[in-house]
Amino acid sequence: MKIEIEEAAKKLQSANNIVVTAHINPDGDAIGSSLALMHILHEMNKNVRVFIDDVIPPNFLILPQINEIEHPVELTEKEISADLLVVLDTQTDRIGRTLNLVKAPILNIDHHVTNEGNNVDWLYLNAEAAATCEIIFDLIKFLPINLTENIAHCLYAGLATDTGFFNYANTKPSTLRAAAVLIEAGVKPNVIAEEMERKSLADFKGLCEVLKTVEFFYDGKVAGLFINEAIAHLVDSTEGFIDLIRVIDGVEIAFMLTCKDKNLNRVSMRSRTVDVSKIARSLGGGGHIRAAGCSINTSFDEAKKIIIEAIGKSLK
Ligand code: 5GP
Ligand code: MN
Fold first, then answer.
1. Which of 36, 116, 130, 155 has the fewest Cβ atoms within 10 Å of its own Cβ atom?
2. Are 153 and 34 in contact (CB under 8 A)?
3. What domains does the chain contain, in order, with CATH numbers?
4. What is the largest CA-CA distance in the chain?
């Protein structure tokens, strides 16, 4: 059932034992919104646990109390009961093992236009919000707490990363007003930016190999990077790689195909004009108009053919 933000706030207020989760392959918005909500719920004296079923990239280790995020695989409990499971920044199909581990009604808070709210009790969706962190920022107005420096740090990290440091089309006056309030609460934009953009030497060398794989399609309107199994071993994080080909003159759609495992490949897409969420959705994924993704469960070479063909159709 779709609900308004006031009702989402009420659901949080009436629960006492709350589990918060976000999507696998977690980015700044997934981690920032989950941790911010953890700090908010602590301020409200709630019992809260945060589960993310994936590795937390080292860039986010500066966020306050990030070590409290639990990894479902390491939990000995077979089942965890709670009053509420809050799913942030995704629909439930991308939260991994947390879905079966936690037995509780689900409150879903998201900004992805493709979220249809399947299998959740309540969905608060605001596709106008630049980030789920912007929604959590708005939510605070309906909760009996004040913005703390810890909350502000987490929200700023998500807001900054999901907007490409306030460069993408999702950056709105409300986004910048929220950022200003977060800076007033103690956030240092340069500190967050430096930490988010930091790369290990190994990842930098891996990036050099990845850039050599660039190929152009459809008269240069499409550029792709191809991280096959061998190259995938060279990099821990591919964060930001796609942005380097997105900026090439004439490129409408940039994409990156990454081999995650045998017959499991991830696609990331970015576009200037074309709605890539539609392409992602046609392959079982989702996202936003200008940034979307999906998984393709075939061999790497087959996945390459599939994604190039799907992108080609959208250009016609
Ligand atoms: P990225 O390329 O950064 O992994 O993802 C771009 C956007 O698309 C993000 O907002 C992300 O949440 C969304 N996205 C990526 N992959 C998937 C997917 O498999 N399913 C859905 N529903 N959304 C995705
Ligand atoms: Mn997001």
1. 116
2. no
3. 5-197 (3.90.1640.10), 201-315 (3.10.310.30)
4. 58
Ligand 1 and 26: CB distance under 6 A: no
**CA 161 to ligand 2 centroid distance, Å:** 9
The rounded Å distance from CA 22 to ligand 2 centre is 10
Q: Is 266 in the pocket of ligand 1 (CB under 6 A)?
A: no
> Following DSSP, what letter does each residue of 113-166 receive, concatenated?
TT---TT-SEEEE-TTSSSHHHHHHHHGGGSS----HHHHHHHHHHHHHHTTTT
Take atom 17 of ligand 1 and give the residue whose Cα is closest. 293
Give yes or no for residue 291 CB within 6 A of ligand 1: yes
Task: Kindly give the interhelix angle for 28-43 and 149-162, rounded to the nearest 10 degrees.
Answer: 160
The pLDDT value given to residue 316: 84
Q: Is the pTM of this model over 0.85?
A: yes
Please tell me the distance from the alpha carbon of residue 312 to that of residue 316, in angstroms, as a whole number.
7
Q: Which of 12-16, 214-218, 232-236, 253-257 has the lowest mean pLDDT?
A: 232-236
**CB hemisphere CA count around 152 (13 angstroms):** 17
